[in-house]
Design brief:
367 residues; alpha/beta; Rossmann fold
């Protein structure tokens, strides 16, 4: 029987209908990159279709080999644990070949997309408010925030590349939750630096409550500093370079270049402060919210070859009862829910890391 390839884009999911619509819109543009290959999608939580549904649709279309990629910027728990667990379970149950690609990551094309959003916001601000020299401009890059320090460091790398690529006077990094510094303390710190213009750029793929909160905190700090100009840049969304990166993540599975950078993976190496998480079992933490919430429209290369293809958790130790039973640190996603994760060592840091609660929402409809 001839092999038929299908493409599966695995999203996180959101209770925000706008976020779900944006994700679906991006995926619906992807078939142009894969002539003859069906392309489907699904979510871990908070939205339908779930990942299993997308896989079912590919099987129904006769696909015998599925190339799956995480629809996420960086490799933290969702990309390293949750999605592979769902895909592994499905592949075993249905006897179908499912291969897993890597996250979008730090990539020249993603930097181009980010630069486009930042420079676009600066251009609009120059037209509406007058010119401000780049050396008098501070860029603030806001990442999602994770209990995985490797993913957080990726945001810092993105920020530095943007700093040098745009030539702004200064650059700072903040996070919407889980780690530190959170958005408001980050912006309050930046305001003290005295730059005439502050550009707030959420390094996010899609909209949602976190985007609203980021812009809301921007409004709060801007109101307290009327002598400084605060500009809200748009998030990445379906920028052409983002779509191109997704396409590359799929095709590189076939080309043998699908190698996740595991050098600083806290599940594989003893990363400072996260030593107890080496070898934790690979499992999904999202069964209790799978499919809940919004409904989608229409329903450096490691020597760890397992991570480079389809991580089955075989490179990890077995989680002991003692590890499983210790106190976990709960965090909320862009919608309030709780599930258990290993203790985050900086949980009591004064500038974080709990996700924003009762946060201000931007009233300008930005994003």
């Amino acid at each position: 029987m001839d092999e038929k390839i299908g493409v599966m884009i695995c999203g996180h999911g959101s209770r925000s209908h706008a976020a779900v619509d944006e994700f679906a819109h991006l995926v619906h543009q992807m078939p142009d990159a894969f002539p003859g290959w069906p392309v489907e999608y699904g979510y871990l939580e908070f939205a339908n279709p779930v990942i299993r549904d997308g896989l079912d649709r590919l099987r129904d279309q006769g696909c015998t080999r599925i190339l799956a990629v995480p629809g996420m910027l960086f490799a933290a728990m969702h990309a390293k644990n949750d999605i592979p667990s769902v895909l592994n379970t499905y592949a075993k149950k249905h006897g179908i070949k499912v291969e897993y690609g890597r996250e979008l990551g730090v990539d020249p094309k993603m930097i181009k997309a980010a630069r486009s959003r930042v420079e676009g916001a600066i251009a609009v601000a120059n037209d509406e408010h007058g010119q401000v020299a780049l050396e008098d401009t501070c860029l603030v890059v806001i990442g999602r925030g994770s209990s995985d320090p490797d993913a957080n460091s990726n945001v810092t790398q993105i920020a530095r590349l943007l700093h040098e690529g745009t030539g702004v006077g200064w650059c700072e990094v903040g996070y919407s939750g889980v780690t530190f510094p959170l958005v408001q303390p980050c912006l309050e710190h930046v305001a003290k630096l005295g730059y005439k213009r502050i550009v707030v750029f959420p390094y996010f793929l899609f909209t949602g409550i976190l985007i609203d909160r980021i812009y809301g905190f921007t409004d709060v700090v801007a109101e307290a500093h009327p002598d400084q100009q605060f500009i809200k840049a748009g998030y990445l969304n379906d920028h052409a370079e983002v779509r191109a990166t997704f396409a590359e993540r799929v095709t590189e599975i076939l080309e043998g270049g699908n190698a996740m950078n595991c050098t600083m993976c806290k599940y594989r190496d003893q990363v400072l402060g996260f030593e107890a998480e080496v070898g934790l079992a690979q499992e999904s933490h999202h069964h209790h919210v799978e499919g809940q919430g919004a409904t989608a429209p229409g329903s450096n290369v490691s020597d760890c070859k397992l991570c480079a293809t389809f991580c089955t958790g075989a490179c990890r130790l077995t989680m002991t009862d003692a590890q499983h039973d210790h106190h976990h640190y709960d965090h909320a996603h862009d919608d309030a829910h709780h599930h258990h994760h290993p203790v985050y060592p900086q949980a009591k840091h004064p500038l974080g890391p709990e996700s924003v609660r009762a946060a201000p929402i931007s009233g300008d409809g930005k994003g």
